[in-house]
Specification:
Blueprint lengths: L1 H16 L6 H14 L5 H30 L2 H12 L4 H38 L4 H17 L9 H9 L4 H27 L22 H22 L5 H18 L5 H7 L3 H18 L2 H13 L3 H19 L1 H12 L6 H12 L9 H12 L6 H26 L1
Helix pairs in contact: 1-2, 1-12, 2-12, 3-5, 3-7, 3-10, 3-12, 4-5, 5-6, 5-17, 6-8, 7-15, 7-16, 8-18, 9-10, 12-15, 13-14, 13-15, 14-15, 14-16, 14-18, 15-16, 16-18
């Protein structure tokens, strides 16, 4: 356990620290190689991990490529400008609408898509509006929180969703109907708590005349209108594909490639740029870190968790679901939600209560907001902000996250209990 724990801790420190611009994927792969060399994991374990994460990883690549193409044609900028304009200059409405926009993007394009694509666009618009630094940080904190708390409704909305759905053979339709209520509750409760916590920094009036008209953001009108039809079609295909038990990545990556080809033929994007700029490091990060974490499983960590979870399962659904969710949440906050979801999935495997798998997802999606290193989306979000000249400190972020996350998490988990 000591060697496996040390490898994991050192790997995670370097993932967070990123000394000399060391990429997160490179660090995770190095950690995996060290675990393999020291015998913490075997080559067979590597194959097992690959079989667990391949679908999630390929789906993530597809979602990000699709998001990048949409960004190139002005889709997200149009959404941001439209959101600002319909607020009619009300700071409160703009705050609420920005949260709802973040929820929409997170649900359809995953939490990482919201962090990578939407954050810089919203930041640019807020600077044009000449909002003061505290107001900008308030909007950013709200956007960062909703990107994870709203990543619940679809299997593809978060990598943790895909991994868990695949591990427990949960279909796309089944997953959707079990998580739609927690998703709606999460968005509503998140919005209320975010407003209460940040209202002192939300302006009463915003001069929206400083912003350009939404239609000016559209770089290819034909592709822009086609994109709405394509997204509707793609979403329907996910539901149809579930009837044939097809992997989610077939539609996520396949749809992205088709959309990229169409956009290229319409001369709306440069495919080489899209492929080059895609976050390939996330692929190595996912596989590498999961291999490192599998070493903790081999060392017996999942056995300890299984004992605790089995005890919770004997105490009724309410305690079991809320307890499982909070265990996942706190583990995610401490050791990142990517490894947590795998460890918890393995620990839950022999417990005959599928609701706990959903509780694990909710805990792994919301819990990471308690610390800056709790999720890949937050790490990417903070990295984007630093590049744009905005620095949110460790304690500032953690204080915010520790205040808002537990109550929102409790309400969402309770919604899952009610929905069972």
């Amino acid at each position: 356990m000591i060697v496996a724990s040390l490898i994991f801790i050192v790997t995670l420190i370097f993932v967070i620290w990123q000394p000399k611009n060391l990429q997160i994927g490179t660090t995770a792969v190095i950690g995996a190689i060290v675990a393999l060399v020291l015998g913490v994991v075997s080559f067979d374990d590597v194959l097992v991990v690959s079989s667990i994460v391949w679908d999630a990883t390929l789906a993530f690549i597809g979602i990000i490529i699709l998001s990048m193409v949409l960004d190139e044609i002005g889709f997200f900028e149009w959404c941001a400008l439209k959101m600002a304009k319909i607020s009619n200059g009300s700071g409160i409405k703009m705050f609420v609408y920005s949260i709802l926009l973040g929820a929409f993007v997170s649900a359809l394009f995953a939490n990482d898509g919201a962090a990578l694509i939407l954050t810089p666009i919203l930041l640019a618009k807020m600077r044009i509006l000449k909002l003061n630094p505290k107001t900008i940080v308030a909007f950013l904190l709200a956007g960062g929180f909703i990107s994870d708390s709203a990543s619940l409704p679809f299997v593809f909305s978060n990598l943790t969703n895909i991994v868990t759905a695949n591990y427990f053979s949960i279909g796309f339709v089944e997953y959707f109907f079990n998580m739609i209520i927690p998703f709606i509750v999460s968005v509503i409760v998140s919005t209320i708590f975010l407003y209460v916590l940040l209202k002192k920094d939300i302006p009463t009036i915003v001069d929206i005349t400083l912003l350009k008209e939404p239609r000016t953001a559209i770089k290819n009108e034909k592709m822009f209108y086609f994109s709405w039809v394509f997204l509707g079609f793609l979403l329907s295909v996910y539901f149809i594909g579930d009837a044939f038990d097809l992997p989610i990545s077939i539609f996520a990556l396949g749809g992205a490639i088709i959309f990229l080809i169409i956009a290229t033929l319409q001369k709306a994007v440069e495919p080489k740029h899209i492929i080059k700029e895609a976050p390939w490091q996330v692929v190595w990060f996912s596989i590498g870190l999961y291999i490192v974490v599998y070493g903790l499983k081999n060392a017996g960590l999942t056995d300890y968790l299984t004992i605790i979870l089995k005890d919770l399962a004997l105490r009724g659904d309410t305690i079991a679901i809320i307890g499982t969710g909070f265990i996942s949440a706190f583990l995610s906050a401490i050791m990142n939600n990517m490894p947590t979801v795998m460890i918890m999935d393995i620990a839950l495997k022999d417990i005959p209560n599928e609701a706990l798998a959903y509780a694990n997802i909710i805990g792994c999606n919301l819990g990471p907001k308690m610390t800056p290193f709790g999720s890949l989306a937050t790490l990417l979000w903070l990295h984007v902000l630093v590049k744009k000249g905005v620095k949110i400190g460790f304690w500032e972020y953690s204080k915010f996250g520790l205040i808002i996350t537990p109550p929102v998490l409790f309400v969402v988990l309770f919604a899952l209990v009610v929905g069972q």
